[in-house]
Amino acid sequence: MDDLDRELGPYEPVEDFSDFSVDNSSKGGTNVKHPNVNPTMCLETPRETGFHRSTRICLEQIREAILHHRWQEAAEYMACYPQLLEDTCLPLAQQNKELLWRISINILHHHPNSTMEDYNNICERMKHSGIRHHLMICLEHSFHLLLHGQAEDAKWQLSSAESWRHGKESAAQHQRAKLIQAYRSLLDYVIWCDKRFSNSNNYFDSDNQGMHNNFRQASLNLKEILKSPGVWDSFILSYIDMLELYDDHEEALKILNDYAYNNNFPPNPNAHAYLYRYLKRHDASEKNLMRVLKVLHILVPSHELMLDYSTLLLNSENEADIQKALGIILDMLDFTCWRTNMDVWKCLKAVIQRLEIQEDWENFVCEKMALRKDWWPALHFTSFHASKDLEENPELWKVKASLEKVLCPKQTLKYTADCVTNGKRT
Amino acid sequence: MDDEYTAGYREPCSQCSAVDWGITDECHFYCRSCHNVIERTRDVEDTGFVQGGSNKISSIRKGSKKKLERGHIWMVCEGFQFILRNQANALLRLGVSPQFKDDVLCPLWRLFLQRSRLAYTSNPVKSSKFRVQDVNSYSDSAAESSIMSASATDGESNPPSVADSNAENASDYSGSMDVSSYLSARLRRKRSPLSMMKTLALIHLALVWSREALTLSDLLRLVNEGHVPYVNAYEQLPEEMKVVGKDALLFRVESIPSHRVVHKEAQALVLFLQLPAFPPVTCETLLHPELLSLRYLTDTNLPDELHLWVCRLMEQAGMADQTLHTFDPHSCPVLPRYDVQTAALIIVTMKFLFGLDDQTEWNLSNEVGNQSDSGDMFNLRRWYRLMQTALMRAQQRRRQDIARKQWKAKKLIFPKNNGAKRTMMKKKRIAEQVQLCFEKLSSRPAGVQEVSPSSFRFCWGDEEGSDGPSLHHMKLDGVVSQKHNLLTPSNSTYWHPGLKKCDRRRCPSSHYSDMEPTLPRSFVWLLQLFSFLLDVKPSDLYEEVLKVERQVIGTKTHCDVSSRKKKTRTSARTKSSPRTLERTCLTGGESGKTVSDSS
């Protein structure tokens, strides 16, 4: 059909999807690519033709208009810009198509008068203008349809993109094709969810066949995709959600465990969090839960689940566990995000109370605080913190004040109510 | 027919490993040897989803083979002749006198054909494909006749009309028949005997010969605004003359040549054609700086009184002489650049009157402003403010017009290769559709808005849409005074950079870019104003200003002095004291004084 030799050249990825990269490890995360815009396109060259001058200045005008959100003006210039495609200078052809595509959809996204019809129109044109960007445009198109609530159409787009083949070219784009598959399955899940909530009483009726079909289609793909290393958070959640409804716990657990512990996957704290939550939903033993959280603690000491972890540790009778809990809570409080969190401080208080029963507990606390004693007072126990806590949350102030002496016994701190009341009086 | 779709798919069949694919009625691929249907379908592109578009291309593909571009056989110079005729007709429609086409351009074109041995010659340029045979008798007589006095003939007649006789022999031929000889010649000598730019150079020569009031910058502006066909001029060729394949290299235009380049080409052409002396450009001719300067003064909203000073200056420098403005192979072998020269004259006059050293002109403006009856006195500051806003606006508009300009033709020049042709058509179609979509969205058609042709860039006066109030009637009383019964400028200093001529070959880059930061801002601004007006580079205009200064101040005595002076001036400049500038310019200033005193 097309003059393929022109279209096919040394293949270059258009863009790096760092979020969804299917194979991050092999890329080494070094080639963070910017969209492929040749800088020479924006520079005046001494032997520039009038045509190139026109397109260069037109591009500058469009960029200017877009930057200032003058969408009407941008659209006006955009009407003059497509002649760029007819550039006889072949090496730039691919790049020009991409440029035209990206600017067009950007303007259509924002222009007040643009319609879905325009958008579909441009997407179809650009899709068939070159095979290099076909899959990218399909994906973009379906996202846009989703934004307008047309999930079915979006799915149709992705399905047709999935069946798109173009000899060597589709092989070269297999990563992108995988992404398309993944999103198609995700949309299957979305549709599945809709159906599930629309007839919520009886899932396993025969008239719910459509819903089960969606499940089958989605699970088939997702199962394949989740095998390849990458960050698949939203995909895995939807897959687990479906598996749970169909009571396939074995598979779900296997998938989650694999996601969390397979060394081929990039380290992903969410994987452990998902596993933990799944186990908790299904009443797994505390030992199992703690095992998951222990790994998570190493990855993200400030994770919100650390509160759960210390609570779990507090529940055990083991003395060592209580000491561990202290370490975890102190780690959490190293981060400013937990500084004014009531629950964490309360938990710390509970831990200290439990510790006080043990022998030699003061030494242990000192040991834990040894590294922190230089900067914790400044982080938690200044007079400013005292006045602020008193004002915003007196209860927190009480808890903190009671812990102050325990944590920093040899230091004189200004975390008192005095200065505040004094200050108010004078 | 299936093969067109399956050719790109070379996977072996999973059942029998054969590579022989066909397409079922449902557009699925099937293996022809074992009838195994696979999942692959014909490209989605061809299904009905894309409305209309893809059907179009297939129908063209089918249809075109049968009635493949079968036009007349034609030669490249015929094509150019048509284009030249269209350009001349456009100029006639714009008001150029009819003699221009028949009495000047046509003989010039014939002379060109003869001199470049394309026609009217017994010794034609060698062409591998085609030999001119029966032309000889016809062309000899034409060549004999005095070219410039040839009687009016129809520009449409085809002098080398041999093509018809050979039409039967080359029935499957399309496109011009001798294009390859042009291109091989081009490769050999880096210069084709014919090019689109040559048409402009020829027209420019013909305009100068017939002493029309159109300067080169006017011509280029008309071309730029589309009033004279140039970009995609081949579209207007008759239906039977198909422009195909390599013709594109000669006929496709992707830029409008600059003033400098066309002038150079015209200069080369004038020597190549060995033209005799041109009709004299006297001071009654509109091309002569005396009248041309009037037009530029009007356009830049300068007072009419300034014209008197421009004329005085010209007289003083001996530049009013017509021989200086008339091309003559002996006395004036360089084709004058009337427009640039006139602009330079105006700039030099302004320098004499106002100093333009970033100091004098503002002091003069202050003096004028302080006088009680300054109502109709010309104030440079006021003029500068008016002009500056108008200039900014115009520059902005020009930039927008450049951005909006559409270069690509409706009628494409297709390559002979069918694959490349299809790709081109597809690109064209997509570009058109995207354009249509955005035209609809923005409800504004692409391309530059049509403007009616005008000799003026700006419009001054009270009417609506003007760039500002007119200052033409203003008096120069503030800057000139009566001394010994003679009007004398009150400014007595004149500065100028070193006037020593340098060898163009040794320093090819212009000095302007080096000099520009050290020149007074008001002078640079004036250069920019006029270079915008004429659409030439400021450096070209600067060179011309230097040339005029050399004439006015006299190169012979000042050559050494000025080069020395240039040094002192620049060193004084680094100390950045305007006073020293004035002092160092004293020599120049004295000569300036003598100019005005003696006149």
From TrEMBL, chain A:
InterPro entries: SL1/TIF-IB_Component, TAF1A. Residues 1-41 are annotated as: Disordered. GO terms for biological process: heart contraction; transcription by RNA polymerase I. One of its GO terms (cellular component) is RNA polymerase I transcription regulator complex. Pfam families: TAF1_subA. PANTHER family: TATA BOX-BINDING PROTEIN ASSOCIATED FACTOR RNA POLYMERASE I SUBUNIT A, TATA BOX-BINDING PROTEIN-ASSOCIATED FACTOR RNA POLYMERASE I SUBUNIT A. This is TATA box binding protein (TBP)-associated factor, RNA polymerase I, A. The lineage of its organism: Eukaryota, Metazoa, Chordata, Craniata, Vertebrata.
Automatic annotation (TrEMBL), chain B:
Keywords: DNA-binding, Metal-binding, Nucleus, Transcription, Transcription regulation, Zinc, Zinc-finger. The gene is TAF1B. This is TATA box-binding protein-associated factor RNA polymerase I subunit B. GO terms for biological process: nucleolar large rRNA transcription by RNA polymerase I. Pfam families: Rrn7_cyclin_C, Rrn7_cyclin_N, Zn_ribbon_RRN7. PANTHER family: TATA BOX-BINDING PROTEIN-ASSOCIATED FACTOR RNA POLYMERASE I SUBUNIT B (PTHR31576). Residues 80-239 form the Rrn7/TAF1B N-terminal cyclin domain. The keyword Transcription regulation applies. InterPro entries: Rrn7_cyclin_C (IPR048538), Rrn7_cyclin_N (IPR048540), TAF1B/Rrn7 (IPR033599), TF_Rrn7_Zf (IPR021752). It is found in: Nucleus, Nucleolus. It comes from the Eukaryota. Residues 154-176 have a biased composition (Polar residues). Belongs to the RRN7/TAF1B family. One of its GO terms (molecular function) is RNA polymerase I core promoter sequence-specific DNA binding. GO terms for cellular component: RNA polymerase I core factor complex; RNA polymerase transcription factor SL1 complex. Residues 255-441 form the Rrn7/TAF1B C-terminal cyclin domain. The keyword Zinc applies. Residues 148-176, 560-599 are annotated as: Disordered. It comes from Amphiprion ocellaris (Clown anemonefish). Residues 8-39 form the RRN7-type domain.
